[in-house]
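Morning F.,

Quick status update on the modeling queue. The single chain you submitted on Monday has been processed. Sequence for confirmation:
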Amino acid sequence: MRLTALNGVAVENNPNEDVKRRFARPVPATFSDAKPSRAEVLRGAWWTAGNAQEQVAVADRLARQLSVEPGGVLDFTVGGRQIHARIASVFRTGPSVGARYELVFTPKALEGVPATWNGGLRVRSASVASLQRVAYETYPTVTVINMADMLEIVQGVVDQIALVIRFLSGFAILAGVVILASSVAGTRFRRIREVVILKTLGATRGRVAGIFSVEFLILGTVAGVMGGLLGSAFASLLMKRLLDTYVAFDWIAAAVTVVASALIANGAGWLASFRILGQKPLEVLRGE
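Structure tokens below.
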């Protein structure tokens, strides 16, 4: 159906250019007498069964785009028929593999309008071809779509994207290791002076090693926390803005990242600083 007006204002006169572009073509819609199980009503109320009024429930994202609330009126045209529907509620649906509609009408509103019925059936891979042939011979107007073929195409695209992401991640990790090693190497002479001063003041080799380990672990932990937070933030932005899907923070992955960063930083730090512990205070002090 095609949206023609919002609260009595024609779509072509709407100041929002995104609304004009999106609703310049027909949009899909469905009807339901009862609230779908995955729908969560945010504002307004769902109609009762057998409602004889022309009402519509609008998805939260679409309601924000149209700047409409319950009580507003949307005008549609479909099959030469005009529909004047009042907004009953604004809803939100959780993630699912089924069809998701942003406009749900009362059955009365779409009475007599041509509709397409969708259904799902799980079949063994070896029987898909036979099912398609029998379905076409028995019900020529029924279209059978093998989702496995579509999922293979989607999986191929996702694998390519994942490969690029892994390459960029590996490059970023390698660059981080180089930067960490260079920073540790750049402070080598300062660390030599610190070791000499601590030994002169009576610190044992084990105590100096403990101080260095704590320093390296703190640096790695801070780097891991910042990297985990930034990575999660960018991933959430990508998933919500581009893919419009549900995002959950993975505490286990974040904890593993922090621990691994701390251990890597400790190992890299000691790789560059291990020989410093063997410096004798007298040799360094004579050089100064």
